[in-house]
Amino acid sequence: EVQLVESGGGLVQPGGSLRLSCAASGFTFSSYEMNWVRQAPGKGLEWVSYISSSGSTIYYADSVKGRFTISRDNAKNSLYLQMNSLRAEDTAVYYCARDSVTASGDYWGQGTLVTVSS
Amino acid sequence: QSVLTQPPSASGTPGQRVTISCSGSSSNIGSNYVYWYQQLPGTAPKLLIYRNNQRPSGVPDRFSGSKSGTSASLAISGLRSEDEADYYCAAWDDSLRVFGGGTKLTVL
Q1: Which chain A residues are within 8 Å of B100, Cβ to Cβ?
Q2: Tens of pLDDT, residues A48-85
Q3: B87: closest CA among B72, B65, B104, B106?
Q4: Chain B touched by A32 (CB under 8 Å)
Q5: A103, B100: Cβ pair inside 8 Å?
Q6: Are B86 and B103 in contact (CB under 8 A)?
Q7: Which tens digit of pLDDT belongs to each residue from B51-100?
Q8: Dihedral sign for Cα atoms in the order A11, A7, A71, B40
Q9: How many CB atoms lie within 10 A of CB A97?
Q10: Which residues, numbered 22 to 51 in chain B, qualify as contacts with chain A under a Cβ-Cβ cut-off of 8 Å?
């Protein structure tokens, strides 16, 4: 069974940093592209970042470029999102989502809440 | 302001057919596949339609997707109470992934 489990969320002050993790199981993690997608309270989905299966190709949304860094450790079946210079508008539930060859976002984690507030 | 445009709400009665539209441009829907996701209250999104009109295994055939030019639509036939959820369309736009603002479907 495919499982994606996010962790690392919490309360952080504006300007602070946080590192999110996504633990993958039930599939060959190193063969799949991955994404981070976030959802602010009461709002819609917003794509944050993409990383290819090898980690060689990375994309970011303009809203987080220069502040967030996506990475992966295929040996540990884990995806990461390093978030720096956090702002109030980064407050959201952050989901990791898998891309297969045929379908983007075919599996999603349950999400982890990040709250940026003083 | 989302790159893909969806109506904020839709509604129907049990058994009815409902459609949700998604409008984009030549750089996203016009040149890439469209995906649809269902998000039940308090849960993570779930893939409903991929590659414009394909259903993952386990998704009832009451759900169907279509695409024409720079627009796409999701149709739900035989509406059921458990279909009450938020629905999002999505597509790639060059190296960016874009979502619609979401449509809240209410089953009356």
Answers
A1: 44
A2: 999 999 999 999 999 999 999 999 999 999 999 999 99
A3: B104
A4: no
A5: no
A6: yes
A7: 999 999 999 999 999 999 999 999 999 999 999 999 999 999 998 999 99
A8: negative
A9: 26
A10: 33, 35, 37, 39, 43-47, 50-51
